[in-house]
Amino acid sequence: MISQYWNLVATNLVFHQPSQYNSKDIGERQRTVHEVLGGGFVADVMLWRRGNLTLGILLVTLAAWVVFEKSGYTLLSLVSSVLLLLNVILFLWAKSAAILNRPAPPLPELYLSEEMVNEVGAFMRAHVNDFLSASQDIAMGRDARLFVKVAAYLLLISVVGGLTDFLTLGYTSLVVVLTVPALYERYENYINSYAITGFRKMQQLYVKFDAKFVNRIRKWILERQKLS
To answer: Which Pfam families does this UniProt record tie to the protein (predicted)?
Structure first.
């Protein structure tokens, strides 16, 4: 049993070599940033192709963050106040329009079609089923890699959540999503050059580490394997 274990470890160490990645792959990308992000409406917003809309989203989000953080409002109280004000305005508008023979408020038809409800339900059902399937795989120990990823993400969320509140985290994440891709697309050549330099330095460090430590371990395991 022990010899089989040493054989397995020695095989993994002896035949495991550094991956032959080419640093040029970092700078040579077949798809543009817009295509990587999906190439649709969301990509346009993230890359400021619709600058007015992106700026509006940032300003509205900033206003909401200031309202919640500085005024002491909660989400429930703010939504209730806005709906109350909207109902009062529409009600008084409709009553005054009937008395003064003016047109009623131009409200669209508030109606959910069966087709729309079915599409939303199918979309939610598909994503919920994917989530449940992944959760079952993790709980049954079928996917160790997925378990490690989920555990790492949850640990990261726990650490970040302990440093800030959910509202600030959400606003900061939105700012990052709406600025980092656009900055990368604009300064792509400079960023890629620095990334290639860092990648080459990491490769050199790995080669040194492999020669200094991993080779010694390989030799030691091979010696133990020969003795056994």
So the answer is: Reticulon
The rounded distance, in Å, linking the Cα atoms of 59 and 203 is 43
- Complete DSSP assignment for 15-82: H-------THHHH--SS-HHHHTTSSHHHHHHTTTTHHHHHHHHHHHHHHHHHHHHS---HHHHHHHH
Burial of 46 (0-12, 13-18, 19+ CB in 10 A): buried
Angle at which helices 188-209 and 166-186 cross, to 10°: 100
Rg over CA atoms, the chain: 29
> How deeply is 47 buried, as exposed, middle or buried, from its count of CB atoms within 10 A (0-12, 13-18, 19+)?
buried
The answer to whether the beta carbons of residues 45 and 59 sit under 8 Å apart is no
Query: Are 169 and 160 a contacting pair, CB within 8 Å?
Result: yes
CA dist., res. 207 & res. 213, Å (int) = 10
Domain boundaries, the chain: 188-227
Digit-by-digit pLDDT tens for the chain (228 residues) are 444 444 433 444 444 444 444 545 544 556 788 788 877 888 888 888 888 988 999 998 888 888 887 777 777 888 888 899 999 998 998 888 888 888 888 877 777 888 888 988 998 999 999 999 988 888 888 888 888 888 898 898 888 878 887 788 888 888 998 889 889 888 888 888 888 889 888 888 888 887 777 777 777 777 777 776
Amino acid (one-letter) located at 160: V
Q: Which residues make Cβ contacts (< 8 Å) with residue 123, sequence separation at least 6?
A: none
